[in-house]
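Long-time lurker. I teach an intro course on protein structure, and each term I like to show students one example going from raw sequence to a predicted 3D structure in token notation. This year I'd like something fresh instead of my usual example. Would anyone be willing to generate the tokens for the chain below so I can use it in lecture? Attribution to the forum is fine with me.
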Amino acid sequence: SAQPRPFLVAAVALLAAHYVYAALAKLAIGRRPWVWPVRNRLDFLFRTTWHHGWLGFLAEERVRRLARGVRALSVPIQVLTIVIELGAVFMLADPGVAIALLGATIAMHVGILLGSGICFWRWVLTNAALIGAVLLLPAEVSARVFGLGPLLMTAGVVVAAPWVKACWPGLGRLWIVPHV
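-- Reply from a regular --
Happy to contribute to a lecture. Here you go:
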């Protein structure tokens, strides 16, 4: 019954590293780390994708009203995005934390789909499958999957991932962690 442990720990650690690197990339935009969360204009993305056909059934006036709402919520949404993505490093702390963070990433991806038409369906399915795996873990396996050791492994993956990809460039097609 301990066989799912290495795969689940590795899968969640790699997934967490993906989200951490996405957050770090957003924080690297501009001269200060708060440029993306504070100054990025989600309403521009929403309106641009509408002009290219996403939610094309909506009248222009409705899109303008929705875009004003998106603009008003941009900073909270973007700060929450950074918190969720950076928080992913804690997925292996506890099953409840993992389920909450995986659920939050699914909600984030659904929000991205609704607002822009960009569909991260593979991430949604992967995260939903991981929620299912966590829920189905026997208590004795769960006790070994979560805790300090797996958290340290996640931190190691986050630190090592760019070096691994830099050493084996061909791995980029297989590696789920983007090199930043």
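Some talking points for your students: The first helix runs from residue 4 to 27. The two ends are 37 Å apart (CA to CA).
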